[in-house]
What does this fold into?
Amino acid sequence: MKKFILSATGAVTALLPLRFRHAIAKSLIEDRALAQEYGYFYLSSLARKLNVVQLAASGQYGIMASSSNDLSILKKYAETGRWAPELAERLKAFFAGSGGTYLDIGANIGMTTIPIAQYNDSVKCYAFEPEPVNYRNLLRNIAENCPSSDIETYQLALHEHDDVLPFEIADGNLGDHRLHIETGLPAKQNEAGRKIIDVQCVRLDDLPIKLTSPVFAKIDTQGAEPFVFAGGRQTLARADAILVEWSPYHMARLGGGPEIVLRFLEEHFSYGQIEETDAKSGQWGESGPIGEITRRLQSTITEWRDDPMSYVDLVATKIPSIAR
It folds into this structure.
């Protein structure tokens, strides 16, 4: 809705005399409240009008760059100086006083890989990001903010088999790029009009990943999670903790079986916790034995299937002390 309001406002503004348009622009720059509310949207729109393809913002992790049409991740970082602070603190606590391995599956521009690499340079990080523009910015942000850290990057999508598959590009929310599968389900996030590219898909278990304990895996792949687990059973079974986004709508859009995720976690982990995602409030929710947690989520497969805004993070661990 806000993007629509801004577009309408811009259309009206264009009809005003030049001196009035200048006054509006000056107010946007000088009025702090106005700038915080609308400034980033106008900056992004102006950048694209002028063929500026990249913006950067300074915050706790350093200067992070993204595409000029990034209205989600970079916007939040520019406004708050952070991204996913609850996850960053969880990772710091998990790797405190030791090395280990971090698998960032769905790394985007590096907002979770870079903080842990900065905090503990003895942690080996593997960052997976298939989308070419995000991947270039991931490399740029690593070079800018932690060039000496042990980070290995892959411009790949993880799947249950090797293939080249169509991949849809979301405008504005660059964390919503995802594999494109024709399932015939209603498109509720403007998926029908998205640009389609091809990406290389591989099985996680086929990659030369060297795991040093403790191992933490973050899996946020906009509905491809069942395929990631199916192709990475051996690797992910060695993780001490897994954080996976649980979104029945997105999994249904890709034709994946959510039960694959639940059964895998039941087989290899003992404890679980449901919590709001970091993109929302980051609040902790129900926790307990993994069987209780998976039974709770089983009911959401049908309940949330048609609602893209109903999703949570699921944290699975092998010992209860690292569930939070």
